Amino acid sequence: MPAETVMKLLHHWWTARRDEPVMRGGLTLPRHKPGLPVNGEIATLVMPDRLVLPLLDYHGRRLLPVVSVGQRVDYGESLAPGLIASASGSVIAIEPRPVMHPSGRSELCVVIRPDENGTVESAVHEAVPELTEQRLATCGVTGLGGAGFDTASKVHKATQHGEQLDTLLINAVECEPMISCDESLMMCHATEIIDAIASLMTMTHCKRCVIAIENDKHAAIAALRQALDLRPLALTLQPLAPVYPAGAERQLVERITGQLLFAGERPTHRGILCINVATALAARQSQLGFPMTSRIVTLAGRSVDEPVNVRVRFGTSVAEVLRQTGNKPSLASHQVRTGGPLSGFDLASLEAPVTATTNSIIVQPVQPTVEPLPCIRCDRCSDVCPAGLLPQQLLWYARAEDLAGSRRFGLDSCIECGCCDLVCPSGISLTQTFRHARDSQREQRHRDQLADAAELRFHKREDRLAQRQAARERRRQDARAKLIGDSDAIGDALARARRRRQRHERPGQSGDHATPSHDGDS
Amino acid sequence: MSTVLALLGFVTVITLLGGLLAWLSSSSKALRLGFVSRSGSGSGSGSGSGNNDNGQTGDGALLPSIQGDAAPGTEPITRLIDSVNAKLPQTQCAQCGYPGCRPYATAIVMQDAPINQCPPGGDALIRELADFLGKPLVALDSERGDTKLPQTAVIDESQCIGCTLCIAACPVDAIVGASRYMHTVITDHCTGCELCLPPCPVDCISMIAAEQGLDHWCRPKPS
Q1: E-assigned strands of A242-352?
Q2: Phi then psi dihedrals of residue B43, to 5 deg
Q3: Which residue from B minimizes the CA distance to A63?
Q4: Three-point CA angle B208, A99, A320, nearest 5°
Q5: A287, A450, A82, A79: which is closest to B188 by C-alpha?
Q6: Among candidates B150, B115, B149, which has minimal Cα distance to B135?
Q7: Do the Cβ atoms of A101 and B220 come within 8 Å?
Q8: To probe the interface with B, which of A412, A428, A450 has the most B CB atoms within 10 Å?
Q9: Which position has the higher pLDDT, A167 or A22?
Q10: Engineered SS bond to A358: which of A98, A329, A354, B140, CB 3.0-4.6 Å?
């Protein structure tokens, strides 16, 4: 134990001596970046015969299509707000299909059969001298890092406070093992990336710009430096010691700017715009008039013979990607994962289409599930937690579905990186427990909101009914008061009635039931 | 001599000042404490009210901690009713036998009504209320109905005759329409209380499971 502590202190001292920002927690994993391009080129897949585009936004909310079945669509045409056609062709169906989601559910998708011009990718819009939020939105630029946020609204939020953007942070860290799509992009398109960063700097009027990159990406760093020599920009290229999850937004902001974000707070609240390097390039392409219709996907894993990075058009199914790269796994014997080995999820169907957040497809043989052992309180998870939490403690509250307790132990700050799972000697799925707890909490809040709204409507309705009743009562009383005040009218009416009764009673023999009909006639 | 006198005077003044300060600080502390204990979630106890929100229980306390969202200055009993009401599902279905959630919350607090009368809230609500009010756990009163999965009402619009009876029955204004015109349910507003079912003369309202998008999907708990 003391030896470990001494080593840790030495490591801190060493990194501090090298003037590198140190990160809290995290894991130093062996570098494993398969499928990097060898000849400076990234292959593009052949156009598939079907493109399936889910009608979902990055939250998973459904979108309403603006096209109909049988309609011809052009490349870059809008299919729904925020969703664009990745090839020209005809819409052959709008139907539920499996989507890229941990639930494995089917959702409504637009199915396009590309025509012979489908592969032609020309600029859809005119190039603009300066990048605008409008252009980012029309070209459908969303984050290519992980969460897939809408870039236009992110830029809008970062710059709306009226103050100058403090830091433009280009995230080129890509810390998760087995994913190398951003690294390949930097190796092959460094010049374009520097141009892209220049346009983003002009657009956001940022005070400073930092490119954060892991220091073991030697080829990428060299390529970027070379490009920067050709086009000098006022920015810092910051190599970082490779620690997982250094590329997580909050951790990166903390490491680069020294600002600790609150739970639920976004960097944009502090005037920091954190943009993935591939997203930056997509933004630049949108400035030149090209919509965002494809991304680079890393294909790796133990069951993949030749790991490779390929450019895949959105809507191409995972099965098609695997087929074109010469792999034929089946879900019976293989486990196909997307989003990364640590923070991703397993696919339930290979028909799920590639979207903006599909950074990797990892194919492994099915691993036997191991029954978790009890927690022995070894504390390793809290050593590695990059959010500075006590996962072993949080676990008890999350397991017991005690949301208030979980919140007290920082559930909102968990970034679901999976470090705690990796070090747990008991093999406990801590992260999945936290994911479940976070989602339950979100749903609890949603239910509370609905309940509050229902209660408000209920009370408004009660008030309305009470007012209506009061108004009716008032009218009745007014009428009564009018009658009582007009004493002659009542007297007259009573006298009339009396006279009539006397008139009828005097003949006497016809009985009582004749009386009402006579009354009705008069 | 004069030096000694001056020194003595100085010491006296210092002592007096110190005493005054001590008295002031102690009295202000007392004042502050009094303020906190009287008004609970007043402006002086921002941190305290922050910890109390949403279902934190009064661990071992005689009286449950009152939620911070209740308006300050109201009667403690009203705030207690507010806190209980905030836990109820607000379906306003009246299955509890009271004409709405707030009347039931009032009955729980004022008349010691049983806490197991709310089928939509189910066992989770009973657990929460038992924890909050320090009452024993009981099973749901099955005579009141069963806990159902989230559901919404749907009007078969081809059958609707536009009688407005369901609109009058809906406690949360989730049905729109006019006399002799088709009615429809605003799905987002429907609480699934089923109160619109009995008055419909043509039986054209049915309950379906509330469909939820991927944005409301919960990742499963590991086994």
Answers
A1: 272-276, 294-300, 308-313, 334-338, 345-346
A2: -65, -25
A3: B213
A4: 150
A5: A450
A6: B115
A7: no
A8: A450
A9: A167
A10: A354
What CATH number labels B151-212? 3.30.70.20
Residue A45 contacts residue A87 (beta carbons within 8 Å): no
Number of residues that make up chain B: 223
Average pLDDT on A223-237 reads 91
Position B38 scores a pLDDT of 33
Contact B70, B78 (CB under 8 A): yes
- What is the location of CATH 1.10.15.40 in chain B? 63-144
Question: How would you class B111 by CB atoms within 10 Å of its CB: exposed for 0-12, middle for 13-18, buried for 19 or more?
Answer: exposed
pLDDT at A283: 93
User: Residues of A with CB below 8 A from B192's CB?
Assistant: none
Q: CA neighbours within 13 Å on the CB side: how many for A495?
A: 6
Which CATH code is given to the segment(s) B63-144?
Answer: 1.10.15.40
Coil, strand, or helix at residue A482?
helix
- Tell me what the pLDDT averaged over chain A comes to: 88
CATH 3.30.70.20 in chain B, residue ranges: 151-212
Q: Which two tokens stand for residue A119?
A: 């592969």
The ipTM (two decimal places) reads 0.78
Contact A461 B172 (CB under 8 A): yes
> Closest Cα partner for A298 from A36, A512, A520?
A36
